[in-house]
Amino acid sequence: MIPDSLRPHLRSFAAIARGICAAVLMVRPAQRIWEWIDEHVVIPQSVGSVNPGRLDTSQMPFWRGIYDLYWKRSTHYVTICASARVGKTLFAICCVLHKIGIWPNPILWLDPTRKTAVSFSRAELQAHILECAPVKERAIIDKVHWTTLMMHFIGSVLRLVGGGAPTELAGFQAELVVINESDKVKHTVKAEAPSHELAIARTKQFRFTRKIIEESTPTTEWGRIWRRFKEGSQHYVYLPCPHCGHKQRLTFFSEEKEVPFDADGKPLPAGEKRTEKTGRFKFEHLKTPDGHHDLQRVERETVYECAGCQKDINQSHQPWMLRRYELRSHNPKAPIDDISVHVWAALSPFEGWGMLAKKFLLARGSAAKMHDFFNSDLGLPFVRKATDIKIDDIEAVIARSPEYFLRSIPRRPEFLTMCVDVQGDGFWWSIRAHGLAYDQPDLPIWTALVDYGAAVSWPQIEEIAGISTDKSGKINQYTFTDTDGTVHEYIVTAGLIDSGYEAQQNKKVYAFTLKNADVFSPSKGGGWQHLRGQDVRTSPVNDDQQDLVWYYDDGFKQQLYYHCIKEHKRLWWLPRNVGPDYKAQLTAERTQEEQQPNGETKLVWKVEGEQGNHLGDTEKMHEVLLDAAIEEKLGEIREKWLKDHPDLAEALREPEVEDEDAEEAEEEE
Given 3-state DSSP classes, what are the helix, strand and coil percentages for the chain, each rounded to the nearest 5? Predict the structure, then answer.
């Protein structure tokens, strides 16, 4: 029994306890993620945005719907396949800020390279952090806890890693992983799994709460971001017509597609689909009397033709349409935790519809420009149509190459590589020189065909490669003469040899490469099922005595025939006197469209002509070597040269953002 004299004191204690509990255990407001972002995120003036200051997600309101999908408890993967300059990186930055401020735990940001990670951190990420008040309050800013690639906060740590350094992706865990510009993250032979997968593996301890954001502008249909988009929910943004109210996804060209919902967006019965037709950008009426498009009028007067009523929609209606957006999924079979979204430039109020039409018209006739238009503006992979390499294409390569001849080198190289295609009746081989173009901005890589031919035996291959001497006791070398008359001599330092079934059974490739392992490696082309999602990987052979180099065959063929020869995207050179046998073999392979058992049309490679495409295969293997090893080594040489020539470096490269923690960033490597 409580005495009456103590009751007033107990009532007073209870009031105090209630007050303490109310203050300490106060329920957090039920705030949506984009509401928190609108309240706290500021776009820094320093990042060069056209709209610095407080972020207003209502300008592109469909991102609010994407934030809501990301924040669903069931969502673990968010894949954003988008064109350039539509806010996909800002989306990831805002998710990082929200995590630090609301649900702190470790965060990993994977960038394509360590260099891009450093630049991004200095120029963008840290600026956003310091402008976001609740996040800045949690930051521990001192020389130990705050560096370019590692930032500590109360309750969390943010680590940035480059995709080219898979060894840095070990020894820690993360609840949130961001893979920035996924298609640009390189796959190398140094890791059994791609850096993407190594980064995702860091989330295993948080498998019920983890969030993995992967975003990129797509490249080709076999690029990672497009494949991940197709595996996910395939959400598209639908906007209503201001005339008839019909909701549709905007597309540059009119297209038809089977979708699993009715015209109102309601799901159809399981397994059923209907054909959806989209509208298109309309500018064919903006022509001059001579039949050419008036580009000034195209820029000002391009409209969108509604798929429902066929009336013209001006871009001035876009804000009204965006406020009434809807997200619709095209893939009901996707895992419930795998959300993927497509966003492209026409959805942005900061992109002019007429500018998109003008860029398309200017890109016609150029495969390289059209490739960029599909990727950077439409947010779509560039799907090449059936084509072939012609003699004129080879002649065009020769014409744009420096003037040099077989068995000579046009510039002083860093490496010579030799690749060998093995056939039942002998061998075809080619040798290329690789170096840096020191007279061009950013010192791009050049590669020049030095020599090629046929051989009949392994000893002959050793002689050609400079591994053994010829009958006169000489070593096969290739020379380059400097402007001062100094003669430099080179031999082959690395090479790949085809080790397909016939090559291995008849020619004993593994025995030869094991004997000459300091120069040659066996190689084999394969599909994605062999490559485990990588472009290049290695697997042990001969009881781990050597590694077999697997490479994505179709991908490197595309790179050789389109990237190097047709689209001129690499300094890829040929000598003036390259022979007709070389030209015949490089033009013997072409692509053609074939229908697959599942009904889809796929580009397949076909070889025609008596000589086959053996030299084309050797050139393809040179591309594999560049991707797997040579580019990285040349990159190291480039960085050393820039450090040794600071005055020249300033004239050759754009200035980088300086940072007081540069020394700490270098020490982290």
Answer: 35, 25, 40
